[in-house]
Amino acid sequence: QVQLVESGGGLVQPGGSLRLSCAASVNIFSFNAMGWYRQPPGKQRELVAAITSGGRTNYEDSAKGRFTISRDNAKNTVYLQMNSLKPEDTAVYYCNARRTSSYWGQGTQVTVSS
Question: 72-87: string of b/e by CB count within 10 Å (b at 16+)?
Answer without folding.
Answer: eeeebbbbbebeebee
